[in-house]
Amino acid sequence: MIPGERIRALNALPARSGGYVLYWMQSSQRTVGNLALEYAIRKANQFKLPVLACFCFDPLYPESNLRHYTFMAEGLVSAGRALETMRIPLAVFWGAPGESIPGAANDAAMVVTDRGYLALHRTWRKDLSGMLDCPLVMVEDNAVVPVEAASGKEEWSAGTIRKKIHRQLMRFLEPVERTTVQYPLPSPEHGGIPYNEADSLIARVKEKSPGPSPLYRGGEDEALLRLERFIAGDLSRYSAGQNDPANPVTSGLSPYIHFGQVSPAYIAQRVLESRQPGADPFLEQLIIRRELSLNFVHFNPHYDRYEGLPAWAKLTLAEHADDPREYVYTEAEFEGARTHDPFWNAAQQELLVTGKMHGYIRMYWGKKILEWTESPEQAYAIAVALNNRYELDGRDPNGYAGIAWCFGKHDRAWGERPVFGKVRYMNAAGLKRKFWMERYVERVAALEEEHGRGVSQ
Fold first, then answer.
1. Among 42, 91, 142, 147, which is most buried by a count of CB atoms within 10 Å?
2. Which fold has domain 143-176+220-299?
3. Tens-place pLDDT, residues 390-445
4. Are strands 193-194 and 90-94 parallel, antiparallel or unpaired?
5. What pLDDT, on the 0 to 100 scale, is given for residue 456?
6. Which residues of the chain does CATH 1.25.40.80 include?
């Protein structure tokens, strides 16, 4: 049974007679653990109708480029293949949802969609709820515990949301049995682009830099393969090695979670089943920390801007805004990894080459942008811009919350010091005490030598 807290009607229209149930796939580009798809299938079987799935390939999605679109297109081909085995055609439409979904829903009994959390996703759904002549139902399947079920307010920290999530976690982790399509669509005609041509759309993307990641290929099948390899291998070492950038022990799943190519609940189920010793710290990151970020972007309208920081952080940073900086860099110098710090440069080079940065070093990366920029407001804008442009999992609640944490969000006040005020400080000496950082620099240099930077110079 799909928990009722996951299901929300976005308009008050009754189901009508139609030729199919339309599943508007957007933030859940997968078939395994896709509760929105499951709900659409159940409704279609109830109405004795087929299911048609569609996806809107928006070429104007903010801050997107060839790296993001390539990964997404690979994922659509993978999802289309899986849907085809379920007897559900996937149509891909070029353009924003408001341009395509009303037409795709012309003969739909109802439209079912999944849930993205950013402001643009909310706008899409709100606009479409008033444009359609049939019900629009949202099923939340990209959070383990639905956002509003977890908390009704913006949470202060992981400590304040953890108990609220744990109280109801296992209920939302109950597996939902998959339903077979009983009434396949007799004709594949749908007016969109066939899923197996989705990768051809990337040729039409205007922003060509950065290029595709050489290490991460999109798709549900790739995500599930990475998950099983992680469970069989590095998960047992995760507790001891999760923070070490020199010897990374990570799942590599964050790009796939961002694009909805793997279900967080399914990951949690498989990790729990494994009974590996690293399960608890991994689930802390996957569930508690990630859902704290979902809470942040849902309840804070300024989640992507400096204004979204807590009052104490803005006050202490303002009090130290005029402190002298030992180094000051421009956005272009940061972007090109041209600072005096070999560890910071390696972090940025890793991002440029691969589209992903190690999580612990990502915190250091953000802290140093704050330290080496003329103002905290400018530093925040630079960090967001670089993260969103180069990270495969950029433009994401985790990314926004992670940058905000570097500036004091979801943290407490520490001892006061220049530039940072009472915001937590990190330095290169701390990295060297904990990790073999020269190995990290060498590893990134080898990646750059093998693959290049993937960006136009």
1. 142
2. 1.25.40
3. 999 999 999 999 999 999 999 999 999 999 999 999 999 999 999 999 999 999 99
4. antiparallel
5. 57
6. 143-176+220-299
d(CA 155, CA 158): 8
Which candidate, 313, 310, 344, 363, places its Cα nearest to that of 428?
344
- Give the per-residue pLDDT at 188: 66
Find out whether 404 and 309 touch, Cβ atoms under 8 Å: yes
Residues of the chain with CATH 3.40.50.620: 1-142
Q: What is the pLDDT, as a whole number, of residue 186?
A: 81
| CATH superfamily of the 304-448 domain | DNA Cyclobutane Dipyrimidine Photolyase, subunit A, domain 3 (1.10.579.10)
Considering the segment(s) 1-142 as one domain, its CATH architecture is: 3-Layer(aba) Sandwich (3.40)
DSSP character string of 190-255: -SSEEGGGGGGGGGG-S---S---SS---SHHHHHHHHHHHHHTGGGGHHHHTT-SSS------HH
Helices (H) and strands (E) in the chain, counts: 21, 7
- CA 322, 325, 331, 335 torsion-angle sign: negative
**pLDDT value at position 445?**
97
Two structure tokens written together for 128: 């479409």
- State both tokens at 293: 């970020």
